[in-house]
């Protein structure tokens, strides 16, 4: 069956939304609005998988949910044409996740590298939710039978798991799926990751081998979307580099993770390939490149920060967007849940 193309993606409301989230994911969310029907979700159920100190407790969760929503809109997502909502308002996410829990295999989850990283050494003490997180993520996507998922590089393995779950569901229930009128036996699509651009993996400004992350103890490791111009300038000027001038060709960036990262950020923000950036700055010193990068970052991020500030000052307006978005999401989710219940054999009211 040819599936109707639909985009779904999510961002966790765990604070410190940064340049990696923006360039790796949100920029592509904005672009895909031109060509697809899109659903963008603030995944608050996912936030709970971490210890409460990480997501900050109830009032922080609500504040961060509104802040991520504000970032979506400030970056250019149109909540009228597309759907913006927070996950916990649509109960189908958790319901479908339960069915998928019974489809996914323990061996599949045991391979997830992000669980290993996040659980660290104290695995016994990680929440069951953290372990099960990729199954909920598959449910997020497939509840809307989404076909395309824009994400950063770190979500690639989770997307592969979503495809495995969709495939196994289709195989396990193939006869029933066909019996319900889906003649090719494919009820769920195999969602495609959309990981593209020169900044699919933005690295820490302090260490070019570590991913830029919300949870890094050093605020100097990342540029937050809410940072003001002075803070952005300070962070970029202090960013780790090496003593060599910038290379003139991309190959010269390979053994130099910090230089590669800064050039990638510049390329993504200016919507040019890295090679073009190196044609302009290759052979020059880092100090002048950093000045240009500060200017570009401030020019691109300041209007977003200002609009976010304006939006979060009006929580009633942001909540209304989330409530209206959830109503529209719920209508699509209800169709999928009904068909899934029929396929699985659950008796229900008609
Ligand atoms: P989260 O909230 O950690 O990150 C949101 C998005 O930002 C991307 N990202 C990065 N991209 C480039 N460089 C970085 N340093 C960087 N850090 C983060 C992430 O890849 C992501 O696209 N599991 C997801 C949320 C989620 C989801 C979903 C995504 C839940 N359900 C369904 C897609 C579809 C997560 O934790 O993202």
Kindly describe this structure.
This protein folds into 2 domains: 226 residues, 3-Layer(aba) Sandwich (Rossmann fold); 92 residues, Tyrosyl-Transfer RNA Synthetase. Helix content is 54%, strand content 6%. The protein contains 15 helices and 5 strands. β1, α1 and β2 form a beta-alpha-beta unit. The mean pLDDT is 96. The site of tryptophanyl-5'AMP has 25 residues, from β1, α1 and α8.
What descriptors fit this protein?
Rossmann fold, 350 residues, 6% strand, single chain, globular, binds tryptophanyl-5'AMP, three-stranded parallel beta sheet, 54% helix, mainly alpha, Tyrosyl-Transfer RNA Synthetase
Annotate the secondary structure layout.
Layout: E1 6-11, H1 19-32, E2 37-42, H2 44-47, H3 52-55, H4 58-75, E3 83-86, H5 92-101, H6 106-110, H7 113-119, H8 128-142, E4 148-150, H9 156-172, H10 174-179, E5 192-194, H11 229-238, H12 257-270, H13 274-281, H14 286-312, H15 315-344
Parallel strand pairs: 1-2, 2-3, 4-5
The structure holds tryptophanyl-5'AMP (TYM).
Please outline the major beta sheet: 3 strands, parallel
Number of strands: 5
Strand order of the largest sheet: 1-2-3
Q: What proportion of the residues form beta strands (DSSP E)?
A: 5-15%
Q: How many domains make up the coordinates?
A: 2
Helix content: 40-55%
Reported CATH architecture of the largest domain = 3-Layer(aba) Sandwich
What is the assembly state of the chains in this entry?
A: single chain
Cofactors, ions and other ligands in the entry: tryptophanyl-5'AMP
The CATH homologous superfamily of the largest domain is termed HUPs
Report how far the terminal alpha carbons are from each other.
Answer: 26 Å
CATH topology of the largest domain: Rossmann fold
Order of helices and strands: EHEHHHEHHHHEHHEHHHHH
The first-level CATH class of the largest domain is given as Alpha Beta
C-alpha-based Rg, rounded: 21 Å
> Would you tell me the overall average pLDDT?
96
Low-confidence segments, ≥5 residues, pLDDT <50? none
Query: Which term fits the overall shape?
Result: globular
Tally of helical runs: 15
